[in-house]
Amino acid sequence: MFKSGEPKQKSYLFDHFIPNFSPPQDIGEFSMWFIFYQNELLIQEKQDSYHIPLLNMVEREKLPLINHFYLGQYGSIHCFGAELNPKTSIPTGYQTWGLRQLFGLIHDDLFALAGRANHLL
Hints:
Layout: H1 12-16, E1 17-19, E2 31-37, E3 40-46, E4 49-51, E5 54-55, H2 57-62, E6 65-74, E7 77-84, E8 94-97, H3 99-102, H4 108-120
Parallel strand pairs: 2-7
Antiparallel strand pairs: 1-6, 2-3, 2-5, 3-4, 3-8, 6-7
């Protein structure tokens, strides 16, 4: 708890993230998607490493997403949250992880954004 007049700690995330609920007309070629499947985050496997999916429109349309929404802009990348339709299976090249499992494995900013997306679902 902070006392009046004490400096508050700066949040690095909010130096680089602009929250919003309305996406702009031009979101660029790729956007970051925080996709949940049965309350776990969908992670993309690429060359022995794991990433929050950066998808272009064609890749995004291949995924059966429901309840998708705009989170805001992180740096120059627009971010969305969504759920993978529970009646489908996890697509090839992806796996799911619980948020607690990801703590310390992904950047703190991305972890915070994943938590925000999960909360807004």
